[in-house]
Automatic annotation (TrEMBL):
Alphabetized CDD domains for the sequence: SET, SET_SMYD
Biased composition (Basic and acidic residues): 1-10, 81-100
Signal peptide residues on this chain, from the entry's feature table: none
Matching InterPro entries: Gramillin-biosynth_MTr, SET_dom, SET_dom_sf, TPR-like_helical_dom_sf
High-level lineage: Eukaryota, Sar, Stramenopiles, Ochrophyta, Bacillariophyta
Region (Disordered): 1-29, 50-102
Domain SET: 127-371
Protein name, UniProt field: SET domain-containing protein
Length: 572
């Protein structure tokens, strides 16, 4: 009996101490839970604070940037006024020497017929460049000082020109069935334009041969143009660079001494020079033009004047797939005589305007891409065969190094996934450095654009997930273009697309936090668009009004049938 009671007592004691321990443990656990909840709250508060600080700092950065821009714009204005006054003061002493006129750094607004800004301007405009006979590939242009992205390098007129009416007439006369487009028409159109240039050269040769055709003006012009052709043909070390510059520009005040036997150039040789020296319209390729011309398409809707032009100075520029310069074409606006300083002789003239597409250091060579820079390396090499060389720029070398790694993954025959999704998957599994991935992406950009078009079409209610996935992809492509210094049409259309996608996100954003995020995104993409337009059209980025005009201009082009992308949003 006794031992049983003892056992009972000790069991009771044990149970009591166990339940005391349990309740203590529960107390500790609930205190710990309390501390954990407090810590979590604290963390959430800290995260929210961090987000707010980040948002504020982005907004502050944007504000600071626009303040800096405003400041440098004002400074530039003040400097312009000052240097204009200095120019006025010294212009008399300079007499009629046009080449001595002080440099105007940017005349790009001329492209947009900006009546508000008066510029002392005459053609050609030569910026911070000079001809060098000792670059890697023979002769070339080099920067004569440090140059900022978007700065104007030079503006010239064509010395020979195949204009739209002539070329169109020739095209319609020769096309076998002008109402139905055939792929060969694009090549034919280019050929007709080249023949037109050859005819122009023959006319000039006739002037030099036949005294009855000669007037003071056309004789001098004919001599200069032949001089420019001769300069192109001469070997790199034959002519002194300064004199060559005058000849190449078909300008300058001293007469060109041309041996009478020098004005004759064999057709085949001349055609060869024309092919290396002629430049076509900016946003359009021959395929797009030929396609249009087989439809009833009014002449007035044409926003380029010429199919091909010969620009000897521009033809001094060597090729790179990672260019640092870009060209656009425009017409110098007409202006009332007496109210503007634009040289009367320049108005209505067709010009090529060349800008820096990135920073260029003094002495660095000016290079641009001879072909659309958006194809993969193999296609670019194929297209460059026409120019008789194999490009060995850093982009080509890097792409060749990694392309083989990617291509086998893309060639799975039974893979039904769209190409871009396969490319992205292959890239993310490739282990390649970001830089190489970006270079490869630019090669496929036309397909990316098709993919974006199709994705937007198939997304009628524009759901948030789909839009943000597209935006991520478009952002990658934007940075890829930046990596190659390309301010090409495809790049601008990608920026327009990003802007459109962000606007959709903004419309979809419900609460305040989401709206702040998308407002910051809109600011970011507005900056990117401004910068790209600045690079494409010169220092426009400093003036919002001109950016708006530039955007309207590219929007018009991108929306046209020949453009790359149709954009629907309004900007800024
Ligand atoms: C329009 S010209 C450029 C000026 C030329 N360097 C000169 O001395 O007259 C084009 C020619 O320059 C050469 N060239 C230009 N870019 C090149 C490159 N990246 N690699 C090799 N040769 C190049 C090729 O011979 C090409 O046919």
């Amino acid at each position: 009996m006794e031992p049983t009671r003892e056992k009972l007592e000790s069991a009771k004691a044990l149970s009591k101490s166990t339940s005391e321990a349990l309740s203590k443990a529960e107390q500790r656990a609930s205190a710990a839970r309390l501390r954990f909840d407090e810590a979590r709250l604290e963390l959430e508060r800290a995260e929210a604070d961090l987000q707010r600080v980040e948002n504020e700092s982005t907004a502050a950065e944007v504000q600071l940037k626009s303040a800096e821009e405003e400041h440098s714009r004002r400074l530039a204005q003040v400097r312009n006024i000052k240097s204009e006054k200095e120019r006025e003061a010294t212009s008399e002493s300079r007499g009629k020497d046009r080449r001595a006129q002080p440099a105007v750094r940017d005349v790009s607004p001329l492209l947009f017929d900006d009546d508000g800004r008066r510029l002392p301007f005459s053609l050609p405009y030569i910026g911070p460049i000079s001809i060098s006979t000792s670059v890697v590939h023979g002769r070339g242009l080099v920067a004569s000082r440090d140059i900022e992205a978007g700065e104007c390098l030079f503006i010239t007129r064509p010395v020979l020109s195949a204009n739209v009416p002539q070329s169109r007439e020739c095209f319609n006369r020769h096309s076998r069935c002008p109402t139905r487009y055939e792929p060969s028409y694009a090549g034919e159109l280019e050929g007709y334009a080249e023949d037109t240039l050859l005819d122009e050269l023959t006319c000039l040769s006739n002037i030099l041969e036949d005294e009855e055709l000669q007037t003071c003006e056309n004789l001098d012009m004919a001599r200069r143009i032949f001089g420019a052709f001769r300069a192109q043909m001469s070997s790199s070390d034959s002519a002194p660079a300064v004199h060559e510059m005058d000849v190449l520009l078909a300008t300058g005040d001293h007469p060109v001494n041309l041996d009478t036997s020098e004005h004759y150039i064999e057709d085949e040789e001349a055609l060869g020079i024309i092919r290396r020296n002629a430049f076509g319209p900016d946003f359009h390729n021959f395929d797009a033009i030929a396609r249009r011309w087989t439809q009833t398409w009014p002449q007035e809707e044409c926003f380029y004047n010429r199919i091909l032009g010969v620009y000897p100075l521009a033809a001094m520029i060597n090729h790179s797939c990672c260019p640092n310069a870009i060209r656009v074409f425009g017409t110098v606006p007409k202006s009332e005589i007496g109210t503007t300083v634009i040289d009367e002789e320049c108005t209505g003239k067709d010009v090529m305007i060349v800008h820096a597409s990135t920073k260029i250091s003094r002495g660095e060579e000016i290079v641009w891409s001879y072909i659309p820079p958006c194809g993969p390396v193999q296609r670019r090499r194929h297209m460059l065969k026409k120019y008789g060389f194999v490009c060995e720029c850093t982009r080509c070398a890097k792409e060749l190094e990694v392309a083989d790694k990617l291509i086998p993954t893309l060639e799975t025959p039974d893979d039904q996934k769209p190409l871009i999704e396969r490319i992205e998957l292959a890239l993310s599994n490739s282990g390649m450095p970001n830089e190489c991935q970006r270079l490869l992406r630019v090669g496929y950009s036309t397909m990316y654009i098709d993919y974006f078009n199709a994705a937007l079409r198939n997304m009628p209610n524009k759901n948030e997930r789909g839009v943000s996935d597209l935006l991520k992809l478009a952002t990658q492509l934007h940075f890829s273009f930046v990596q190659c210094n390309n301010a090409c049409t495809e790049h601008i259309s990608i920026l327009h697309l990003c802007y459109e996608l962000v606007s959709i996100t903004h419309m979809n954003a419900k609460d305040g936090g989401e709206r702040t995020k998308t407002t910051n995104l809109i600011r970011f993409w507005t900056e990117q668009l401004k910068r790209a337009h600045m690079v494409r059209y010169g220092e426009l980025g400093h003036n919002l009004e001109l950016v708006r005009k530039a955007m309207k201009h590219t929007q018009l082009v991108l929306r046209s049938d020949g453009g790359f992308f149709r954009v629907g949003c309004k900007f800024i």
